[in-house]
Amino acid sequence: MSNTDKLHEIRAIIVRHKRWDLMFMAVGMFALMIAVLTFTVLFAQMIIDGMPRLSWDFFTSFPSRRPGSAGILSAWVGTSLVMLVTIVAAVPMGIGAGVYLEEYAPKNLVTEIIEVNVTNLAGVPSIIYGLLALGLFVYQLGFGQSILSAGLALALLILPVVIVTTREAIRAIPVAIREGAYALGATKWQTVSDHLIPYAAAGILTGIIIGLARAIGETAPIITIGAMTFIAFLPPSLVQTEFPFLSFEWLTSPFTVMPIQMFNWVSRPEEAFQLNAAAAGLVLVVMTLAMNGLAIYLRYHMRKKIKW
Amino acid sequence: MTAKSPAEISQPRRLGYSFRRNLRERFIEALLFLTAFASVAITLAIVVMLVKESYEFFQHVSIWDFLTDTQWTPLFDDAHYGILPLVSGTLVSSAVALLVAIPLGTIIAIYLSEFAPFTVREIAKPFLELLGGVPTIVYGYFALLFVTPLLQQIFPELPGFSLLSAGLVMGIMIIPYVSSLSEDAMRAVPMSMREGSYAMGATRFQTAIRVVMPAAYSGIAAAYILGISRAVGETMVVAVAAGMQPNLTWNPMEPAATITAYIVQVSLGDLPHGSIGYQTIFAAGLTLLLMTLSFNIIGHILRKRYREIY
After folding, report:
1. Are the C-beta atoms of A266 and B143 separated by less than 8 Å?
2. What sign does the CA torsion over A247, A251, A256, A257 have?
3. What pLDDT shows up at residue A6?
């Protein structure tokens, strides 16, 4: 075989292999398109079915046996109150744990156990948290099937997210900042509270938003607690006219939340209720998309702005 | 107020101050430790709660019956407590989901990490993240009212509830988890390895398949394990679209309840605390936790064994 023949052969091989490259490019694009297309169809379906039902009345009416006049008032109020409990419980705990693991923890067995544990907790199915809350909060501690139990269950669920993002945000702060604070005589806590937490705030906030976006859409743990699917009243008000002006009665009130309301409507055979489900789903999707979008924007913005 | 020179500050006062300061530091450190330790307490609480109620359950039902009986009818007069039908439903729906999520997720990860131009990656990554953030109940609605009717056009005999449509939608739902973790693992492979491969005349595809993927194996395995855990523990999609009837079948075209769907079904009713029906959901939950745990342990072993360190 002459050299030119060999050259031709090698070129043929290269062309063949390059063709594989192109084919994979096409396959990759196609796979990505399946994901994009599914999401588009899902969103379009929600809009087509749900949009006609979305009106002011839909937000200000209680659920009803007549699908045309049913609304999500008790559901969105319930969701907001449950989220309030979740924030109050998960944010201090998550930040505290993140700060401890990143700044204080000695390298020992206990620390390692905690770290492995946080990773494992993130992989526990959400319905298991519901069972924990059912056994522990509802019966053992006697909180009942209330907003408090639900909020705490979701707080446990998003705790790993908050811990992990807090750690990442704090880890990204250069050591020089800490050394500067110590050089001026600050204690460890002063360094953490005056410097590290404020500088990591945007990162921590991203984690909290992502966690909350997940909590808002979670249905399984709250059903497991025994939340009711048909609630035609609102929990007691947060504020009252007499001293001390704040009331905590709402914590023990029965409730429903947006995803449960939607689940209730989806599982009915009448088509009119399923249109309500689409409308509730649309509200839910827009809310979670907005929250996740905000988190993504914050992260992007931070990456551009902060130069240590 | 005049400033004091250091000499004027008496020694005991400075000591007293630093004592208070130390005390506060210690107190805060202890408090922070408690918040970190809470995660361990949560795990313990989960295990204790599930084992305690399951123990009560197994006082009434022998473990042998639980594992071998082929019927699950705890709320009927003729009660059978065989977990197999729920396990089969869970495994079949998860298998369908993973058949969708693992190939597509891996292809997307390779594409984004090795092939896609910068702008495509910058747009696709947040988009996939959004896809993973959609509430699962919404996916359930989509499976029941869009995917099932669509599949019925192709398979006219498909019932209104089926493991197939629930599994397919669950698969799409899990893609972002698989793709984003795998992509992170592939991008962590040092550039010099790719450059070495290109220098030897390999194409992009060959480099991706024969160099980058083996090097990122442990991270990709972790992504798959997470995907499996998600599929096995997923609740709302199957509760809405796969039906609530326990059914011992390996055929995805049939309706069947999963472990999670059963827990939801019981929770929707009003079971008195302490009844055997109440205990069944904890026994089912324990089974679910053990299933996800064993997948995680397998993943951990695989990772340790094939870990590549650079």
Report:
1. no
2. positive
3. 86
What does the alpha-carbon distance between residue A295 and residue A37 come to, in Å, rounded to a whole number?
A: 23
pLDDT in tens, B253-287: 888 889 999 998 888 877 777 788 888 899 999 99
**pLDDT given at position A307:** 62
The token pair that represents A221 in the structure block: 């743990």
Q: Which residue of B has its CA nearest to A92?
A: B35
Q: What is the pLDDT of residues B212-236, one digit of tens each?
A: 999 888 889 888 988 998 899 988 8
The answer for B 135-174 residues in CB contact with A (under 8 A) is: 135-142, 144-146, 172
Query: What pLDDT does residue B1 have?
Result: 45
> Rounded to a whole number, what is the distance in Å from the CA of B172 to chain A's nearest CA?
7
- Indicate the pTM of the whole model: 0.87
Tokens of B226: 């997470």
Tokens (6 digits) for B14: 């400075």
Residues of chain A contacting B283 with CB distance shorter than 8 Å: none
The reply to whether residue A39 touches residue B134, judged by beta carbons under 8 angstroms, is yes
Is B138 within 8 Å of A217 when comparing Cβ atoms?
yes
Of B24, B107, B226, the CB nearest to A28: B107
Adjacent-strand bridge partners of B72:
B81
DSSP helix/strand/coil, A56:
helix
Amino acid in position B143: A
Instruction: Report the CATH number of the A55-305 domain.
Output: 1.10.3720.10
Six-digit token string for B223: 């992504």
- From the list A205, A130, A200, A136, the residue with the least C-alpha distance to A171 is A200
| Cβ-Cβ contacts under 8 Å, B264 against chain A | 127, 220, 223-224
Predicted confidence band of residue B251 (pLDDT cuts 50, 70, 90): confident
Query: What are the domain boundaries of chain A?
Result: 3-52, 55-305
Instruction: Give me the residue from A110, A226, A284 closest to B138, CB to CB.
Output: A284
